[in-house]
Amino acid sequence: MVDFEKLGLFYLGKRYDEQAGTVTAEPLLYDSRDLMTHALCVGMTGSGKTGLCLNLVEEAAIDGVPVIAIDPKGDLANLLLTFPGLSAGEFAPWIDQDEARRAGRTPEAHAAAEAQRWREGLAQWGQDGARIERLRNSADFRVYTPGSSAGEPVSILSSFGAPPASHRNDTELLAELAGNTATSVLTLAGAEAAPRSREHTLMTTLLTAAWRGGRNLALEDLMHEIQSPPTQKVGVVDLESFYPEKDRFDLAMKLNALLAAPGFAPWLEGTPLDMSTLLYTADGRPRVAIFSLAHLGDAERMFFVSLLMNQIVAWMRRLTGTTSLRAIVYMDEIMGYFPPVANPPSKAPLLTILKQGRAFGVGAVLATQNPVDLDYKGLGNTGTWFLGRLQTDRDKQRVLDGLESAAPGGIDRAEADRLLSSLDKRVFLLHNVHESGPVLFQTRWTMSYLRGPLSREQIRSLRVQDSGFKVQGSHVQSSAIQGLTSGDAASAAALSTDGRSATATPRRSLDSEVGPKAGTSRPVVPPGIQQYFVPLESSGGGVQYRPVILGGAQVGFSDSKLGVSEHRDVLYAAPVTDGALAVDWAVANELGLGAADLEAEPRAGGTFREIPPAALLPKNYPKWEKAFKRFVGQSEQIELLSERELKMTSHVGESERDFRIRVNDALREARDEAIDALRKKHGTKQARLADQLRRAEAAVDRESSQASQAKLQTWVSMGATVFGALFGRKVTSTGNLGRATTAARGMGRSMKEAEDIQRATGHLEVVRQRQKDLEGELERETQAIIDRFGTERQFETTTLSPRRGQVAVQFVALGWLPEREDLA
């Protein structure tokens, strides 16, 4: 078995002996952190390029690294075709029927043959079904199909949302995101999309102004703002002079035609382009998100790729720096998206990822079979080049030009040219700036079944149903508000949470068992009683208001050890009844709103239910305020998660999923640091023992050679002595005595040389044992790193309550809760 399961190393294949034309036993292990300086994979059709890139994705998934995979051709959905049982039944639904007919096999026989072929192929590379099972358990694999419901549909609405508040003051980033988005939309609409064109300038200006103010712009909003912009100037030029109303109307109509197209509706449904959701599951597991684009036209592909790349850039810039690989962005065919001369909307965000991704642990893997259509100057930040068989000599020379300009210190062009000219299928020349020189290797067998491009029907059959993964609309209603009124959906549809989600669990309906009757006009309230109206989100239909008691407070939490200093506003609504305990805060519900969200006046035409008598007595409100303060102090809490070994604590409001993702990133960084330290520690010892072994082996060879020479001389001397005696010379003669004496001394030397060989051999065995002991020590310490950083962490929970003096009641007042009259 090949020893390839190493921490932080990707098993891509085995080294290739060019002279023998065979694969060696030495595995090609690629350091995952080398991908932080990005990779380019070039090879003609049939070179094994896609298989190599799928190997990278498989290894990343096993290592817990999430992947965004962009698939223009439909090949990458093969990553979901993993069959741990390696049985004919698992392969049967996915075999190529035409291929079976050409082979003269029945579908069943062909499935059995494919299963057998995959078992044997994996076994040749030291893999089996258990490793496939490990791959499947390591990450969640999803196929997304923008503009189609074949796979997971994708909503582009979030792509027009304002960046986080922390990004709105970054003028350069805001302009870059707005400009790239404008280019993408204009390209899809068939309008002039060149930067500095009036169409592009106006749309960029509108997007930038909206985002700077924290406003989201959907496409229909953008269309209206083009017709009636919120500004009368573009730069220093009057709007009408820069872009007359009639021309703006024509542009708006192009966007309207886009929105009205029957095929555009699927673009607005499904999973939002939120990187956190796409890269990790609800429980924090890494995800391989495959965006299959084969069903789209060229303009639609460019539109989506550009939007996706912009979202990646925005997400990336919100991250903290890291020294470990955090995520991979892989594009299977880069041709047309990164050309040497033109500037399509995809090029700018791709350049940003290539230039800045390393600082945030984001590695790009770009693949192409058309090396002539690449901007090699833009690839100057690419540290790894996987070069396979190429179609023409022109392709080869273009690749060598790019490699020569990108490689620090240049390359041996003649040698690289020679190697590229003799590559077999699945054999690649690896040039890695982090290694001492180029390497030839053959790619390993993929664990995924390489079925080839999948149709939309086949992708639909692969679609994974996950009830825990829900897509929210642009207005999310909190569960607390959904339970506030009389048990129906009326008020849930009416109340706005202003985009925030409530943390409290609904206790019971605010409507009493015998609710007050509805009136028609606004009740008269005695002086001294404050009134507030909960806002109504929907604009249609009549409104009926229900009386409640509202309590607003500011709550503080602090803990210097945990680094917590948090203040938040809370707003509760409690039912008011005619009973002995008119207001019971224990059954109040948190609204998920702030005091600033409340309104001073009701909606025109609204009707009101009667107010219970207790709520009309001003003297009751101070008592309710004291009870509310106690209630808030006892019920408001912050729960923080902590990981003991790394001494990490979750942020306030951070979900367990997000904290787990952050902990896993920190574990990977700590693991990589431990590996580096282990390599450094053992590297010196290994080098010293290797030198000792070389010298010990040389000593054995030297002593053996000397012993052989001494033995030969001894036998020659003895032969001369015997020869003299046999042919009549006197034994006592001086010559014979001398030869006999020499022979005797030679025998003594031979015995001494034998002893020297024994000593040298013993020393060699000692050195070899030391090497074996060091390997054992290395294996034990590596296993200790696996045990320490490779297991899923259990978190401890710390609960913080507000301390004395940290609850400041803002008001306790009469509140009016709205619901649509037709649902009341």
How would you describe the overall organization of this protein?
The protein is of the alpha/beta class and 824 residues long. The strands form five sheets. An eleven-stranded mixed beta sheet has the order 2-1-15-14-13-3-12-11-4-10-5. Strands 16, 17, 18, 19, 20 and 24 form a six-stranded mixed beta sheet that branches. A three-stranded antiparallel beta sheet has the order 22-21-23, covered by helices on one side. Helix 6 packs antiparallel against helix 12 and helix 12 packs parallel to helix 13. The chain is globular and about 135 Å long. The relative contact order is 0.11.
Can you tag this structure with a few keywords?
6-stranded mixed beta sheet, 21 helices, Helix Hairpins, 824 residues
N-C termini distance: 71 Å
Structural class category: alpha/beta
* CATH T-level topology of one domain: Rossmann fold
State the low-pLDDT regions, or none.
464-516
Percentage of residues in DSSP E strands = 15-25%
The CATH superfamily title of one domain:
P-loop containing nucleotide triphosphate hydrolases
The CATH class of one domain is identified as Alpha Beta
> What is the mean pLDDT?
83
Q: In percent, how helical is the residue content?
A: 40-55%
Q: How many strands?
A: 24
Mind summarizing the main beta sheet?
11 strands, mixed
With strands numbered from the N-terminus, the spatial order across the biggest sheet is 2-1-15-14-13-3-12-11-4-10-5
- The count of helical stretches stands at 21
Q: How does CATH name the architecture of one domain? A: 3-Layer(aba) Sandwich
- Rg of Cα set: 37 Å
